[in-house]
Amino acid sequence: MECHAYYEGDDDPEKCTARRLERFELVTLHRSMGRVPYGVVLNPHAERALSPADAADRLVALDCSWESAGEAAFAMDGVHRALPFLVAANPINFGRPFRLTTVEALAGALRILGEDDHATRVLEPFRWGETFLELNEEPLDRYAACADSTEVVAVQSEYLE
């Protein structure tokens, strides 16, 4: 599965996970929204949760700071899906739900879509990458076993209670 990211360039370049993924040739970075290919767009504002039923050839993430991650920034062509409840392992947002870096979002999506080895590979350049999968092992396994978005939302509800 191809991984793509639209790069806003508004966060700290030293901490930018998408730029590091590009250096390791694990993601294609796009600096123009018009060049981002059609695919499953990871969008926290989407009305439907990502599920195994959304299997596609491409995953697309928006790389920007959380301060500018407004709904308008996700105006990309594609099938928009929100990631369900996951906890961040990155040093800046460790333990905070839904505050994932670009690489965490891509890895979580890959796991939900059954691409376990690919998820592990994209996290390898980060010393905390394995921790992300460990912290979220149970919910990721449960989401990956769901048939559709409705089931994913039902599982997510258990974690949010």
TrEMBL record:
GO terms for molecular function: rRNA small subunit aminocarboxypropyltransferase activity; S-adenosyl-L-methionine binding. GO terms for biological process: enzyme-directed rRNA pseudouridine synthesis. Belongs to the TDD superfamily. TSR3 family. It is an enzyme of class 2 (transferase). Residues 6-32 form the RNase L inhibitor RLI-like possible metal-binding domain. It catalyses: an N(1)-methylpseudouridine in rRNA + S-adenosyl-L-methionine = N(1)-methyl-N(3)-[(3S)-3-amino-3-carboxypropyl]pseudouridine in rRNA + S-methyl-5'-thioadenosine + H(+). This is 16S rRNA aminocarboxypropyltransferase. It comes from Saliphagus infecundisoli. InterPro entries: RNaseL-inhib-like_metal-bd_dom, Tsr3-like, Tsr3_C.
